[in-house]
Amino acid sequence: MNSSPISTRRVYQPLRAVAALASAVLISLPLAACSDETRLVVQSESGDHAFTVEVVDTPETRAQGLMYRQELADDAGMLFDFQEERPVSFWMRNTFIPLDMLFIEADGTILNIHVNARPHDTTSIPSEGPVQFVLEIPGGRSDELGIAAGDTVEHPRITAAQ
């Protein structure tokens, strides 16, 4: 095997180019892309309420949602990002735990809340208008915490949508 400088240079030059390109892409990303997308805060009259969320933003991940999950911690949830404002509706097919659904406009304002959606219910649960986000949290938590329509939600995705 020949380990001359020429053959080594041929291998490492393309790697250096890839590393330089990757660095340029990372540097040019907006700050929100580097933020912690697992932390979401609901600001209500009763105070700030933090949740650890999973973000779902593709048709496949949104379709799966929280189906088949057997439990959800009191401070956990799932944030659905539809990429644009539009009317949306959900159902509880194959969902084993009751959920509250917070329908959120692009600016972070909660438009409406459906409390305690029943597991396995296929009845449509709609937003009351166009929304970009839906936050699902354990059933009854919005009432327990005093979260209501008109409250605001902070999250890197929501800030970016504004």
UniProtKB/TrEMBL annotation:
Species of provenance: Devosia subaequoris
Record Gene3D superfamilies: Protein of unknown function DUF192
Keyword flag Signal: yes
Residues annotated as signal peptide: 1-32
Claim: Signal is one of the keywords in the record: yes
Keywords: Signal
Protein name: DUF192 domain-containing protein
Matching Pfam families: DUF192 (PF02643)
InterPro entries xrefs: DUF192, Saro_0823-like_sf
Domain of life: Bacteria
